[in-house]
Amino acid sequence: QLHSDQDKGDGSLKYILSGDGAGTLFIIDEKTGDIHATRRIDREEKAFYTLRAQAINRRTLRPVEPESEFVIKIHDINDNEPTFPEKIYTASVPEMSVVGTSVVQVTATDADDPSYGNSARIIYSILQGQPYFSVEPETGIIRTALPNMNRENREHYQVVIQAKDMGGQMGGLSGTTTVNITLTDVNDNPPRFPQSTIHLRIPESSPVGTAIGSVKATDADTGKNAEVEYRIIDGDGTDMFDIVTQEDTQEGIITVRKPLDYETRRLYTLKVEAENTHVDPRFYYLGPFKDTTIVKISVEDVDEPPIFSRSSYLFEVHEDIELGTIIGTVMARDPDSASSPIRFSLDRHTDLDRIFNIHSGNGSIYTSKSLDREISQWHNLSVIAAEINNPKDTTRVPVYVRILDVNDNAPQFAVFYDTFVCENARAGQLIQTISAVDKDDPLGGQKFFFSLAAVNPNFTVQDNEDNTARILTRRNGFSRHEISTYLLPVVISDNDYPIQSSTGTLTIRVCACDSRGNMQSCSAEALLLPAGLSTGALVAILLCIIILLVIVVLFAALKRQRKKEPLILSKEDIRDNIVSYNDEGGGEEDTQAFDIGTLRNPAAMEDKKLRRDIIPETLFVPRRTPSAPDNTDVRDFINQRLKEHDMDPSAPPYDSLATYAYEGNDSIAESLSSLESGTTEGDQNYDYLREWGPRFNKLAEMYGGGESDKDTS
């Protein structure tokens, strides 16, 4: 309640309130100054409110005292229970932990005022999870309560923790949370084999590296604590077998280390040990973390293929041996106790030329064709050995045959030599250096000797003793007119045994050379021709000129023949109409296009008629053209018709060619056309056409020739 010393109780003063929550949370009685709360106040929302109050004259509204400020402090009550930030906690602790091992700490909060009473004082207790775990009342730390908790017995635990305020006294509020605790694994269990003896079987034909079987020791632990390493520690097969640990399955895979033989040994005994790779020293007292088992391996008998005495064979033989000579022998045996006889054969895919053969009984390889080192220096054969009782079971062995060289090839020129000698050559001049090659390959290397087959007065050979020789002239001057080519036989021999030699012939041409010895011409005919052109070049030029002339003549004749092609080939070839289009028409029988009767006589011109072979796009009324007089000039007539067709849309299209011709009136020679005499079969003599001049020669040939052909037939 607020009260002013100036208040006489007559209602002349008025109290007003301002500040935090004034008018909403707090209201004041204007007459008495009593302050009231309008609703329930929560300290957790706001603990302090600052207000200002003043007394004013109700009539003048002037303050009678200065404004005063005061603070309303909210006293706390226990109206909030403790809460945990997480509804469910997850924690873990190693198994076999000692009592009191800390697992996890849980903390609850209380919104009440911790400085006022015990409303915010929290005490922790365990509602579920005893007797395995406990919780410290003041801190909320959860600890193990039992010793040697084993994960293999129980792995997961659920603990319920309660937080209660008011120091845990009666009437306090409380909240709970759940803690899921998992025991983590430690290596407290050794591996154990489920069997003390394991039996395995394997065929004796199994190759090295073959997996025979597996062994596995069980371990109750998990993860790296259950990792096991296997090893063979004893037995009579330690050198014959290996064991490998497979990480994903934790099994020990036993494999073959050396080839097995049933006839040599049929049973092996191994002692296999399995040991943990990660051992915890804290649990050594639980015993050794390893175990052993006995593995017995039985070798099963298999019909094995033959075995060769060597993995490969190498035979060397000279290329000049006789046919049927044995070059070597391969040996094989049956490893089985039955010891079946062996049959040998050659794989013909490795001897397509059938140069070798083999004795099927004793494995002797001999030649069936002659050998040639120069064709093939090595022969790689494959010999097959098979049991006679079981031919399908075979073994192969490679046989390498090296052919040794024999001096059976004579040396020859290394290349073809194009040799020439200048006409102005002097005696002793070098004209060619020659060398030789030999297909043979002697151990001491190649050595060749060069000489002439006979004494030559013109040339000589000088051996350089380095497998080359020089060809020199023996006299001064040579003439192409006398001898244009010389043949010089050269003998080439080697130094191996037996000595081989051959004769190579050098063709030496006599040529004209300049002062420096450069060849200019080597043929005798070149002296008769102009300098710079040989006979062959001139012949080629002449042939080209002749071919060009023939082409020009043929082209001109063809063009002339086309120009002189007659319009009418015979008297019987009469057309009533001549129509020319750039598209394909009806042929010579087409008489529906135009009427040529108008052209026969200008006086017979009638009204213009439309084309009958096409339908015009737009129909116009045809215009009537005046008839031409009898003496109308043909040129004027054609020009007039051409102009009319250009202006008339119903006329033939621009890409059609209409040809008009008129022979005229009152010709001195009268009509020369055969159109009017097509029905006359009487004989006529056209020889007078030849007398009219060259312009009528074609007509004379046409009509005169036609009669002669007719008479001939």
From TrEMBL:
<dbReference type="GO" id="GO:0099560">
    <property type="term" value="P:synaptic membrane adhesion"/>
</dbReference>
<dbReference type="Pfam" id="PF00028">
    <property type="entry name" value="Cadherin"/>
</dbReference>
<feature type="domain" description="Cadherin">
    <location>
        <begin position="309"/>
        <end position="413"/>
    </location>
</feature>
<keyword id="KW-0130">Cell adhesion</keyword>
<dbReference type="InterPro" id="IPR020894">
    <property type="entry name" value="Cadherin_CS"/>
</dbReference>
<feature type="transmembrane region" description="Helical">
    <location>
        <begin position="527"/>
        <end position="558"/>
    </location>
</feature>
<dbReference type="GO" id="GO:0034332">
    <property type="term" value="P:adherens junction organization"/>
</dbReference>
<keyword id="KW-0677">Repeat</keyword>
<keyword id="KW-1133">Transmembrane helix</keyword>
<keyword id="KW-0325">Glycoprotein</keyword>
<feature type="domain" description="Cadherin">
    <location>
        <begin position="4"/>
        <end position="84"/>
    </location>
</feature>
<keyword id="KW-0479">Metal-binding</keyword>
<comment type="function">
    <text>Cadherins are calcium-dependent cell adhesion proteins.</text>
</comment>
<dbReference type="GO" id="GO:0007043">
    <property type="term" value="P:cell-cell junction assembly"/>
</dbReference>
<dbReference type="InterPro" id="IPR015919">
    <property type="entry name" value="Cadherin-like_sf"/>
</dbReference>
<dbReference type="GO" id="GO:0007156">
    <property type="term" value="P:homophilic cell adhesion via plasma membrane adhesion molecules"/>
</dbReference>
<keyword id="KW-0732">Signal</keyword>
<dbReference type="GO" id="GO:0000902">
    <property type="term" value="P:cell morphogenesis"/>
</dbReference>
<dbReference type="GO" id="GO:0016339">
    <property type="term" value="P:calcium-dependent cell-cell adhesion via plasma membrane cell adhesion molecules"/>
</dbReference>
<keyword id="KW-0472">Membrane</keyword>
<dbReference type="GO" id="GO:0045296">
    <property type="term" value="F:cadherin binding"/>
</dbReference>
<dbReference type="GO" id="GO:0005912">
    <property type="term" value="C:adherens junction"/>
</dbReference>
<protein>
    <submittedName>
        <fullName>CAD10 protein</fullName>
    </submittedName>
</protein>
<keyword id="KW-0106">Calcium</keyword>
<dbReference type="GO" id="GO:0044331">
    <property type="term" value="P:cell-cell adhesion mediated by cadherin"/>
</dbReference>
<dbReference type="GO" id="GO:0008013">
    <property type="term" value="F:beta-catenin binding"/>
</dbReference>
<dbReference type="InterPro" id="IPR002126">
    <property type="entry name" value="Cadherin-like_dom"/>
</dbReference>
<dbReference type="GO" id="GO:0016342">
    <property type="term" value="C:catenin complex"/>
</dbReference>
<dbReference type="InterPro" id="IPR000233">
    <property type="entry name" value="Cadherin_Y-type_LIR"/>
</dbReference>
<dbReference type="GO" id="GO:0016477">
    <property type="term" value="P:cell migration"/>
</dbReference>
<dbReference type="InterPro" id="IPR027397">
    <property type="entry name" value="Catenin-bd_sf"/>
</dbReference>
<feature type="domain" description="Cadherin">
    <location>
        <begin position="85"/>
        <end position="193"/>
    </location>
</feature>
<keyword id="KW-0812">Transmembrane</keyword>
<dbReference type="Pfam" id="PF01049">
    <property type="entry name" value="CADH_Y-type_LIR"/>
</dbReference>
<feature type="domain" description="Cadherin">
    <location>
        <begin position="194"/>
        <end position="308"/>
    </location>
</feature>
<dbReference type="InterPro" id="IPR039808">
    <property type="entry name" value="Cadherin"/>
</dbReference>
<feature type="domain" description="Cadherin">
    <location>
        <begin position="413"/>
        <end position="527"/>
    </location>
</feature>
<dbReference type="GO" id="GO:0005509">
    <property type="term" value="F:calcium ion binding"/>
</dbReference>
<keyword id="KW-0165">Cleavage on pair of basic residues</keyword>
<keyword id="KW-1003">Cell membrane</keyword>
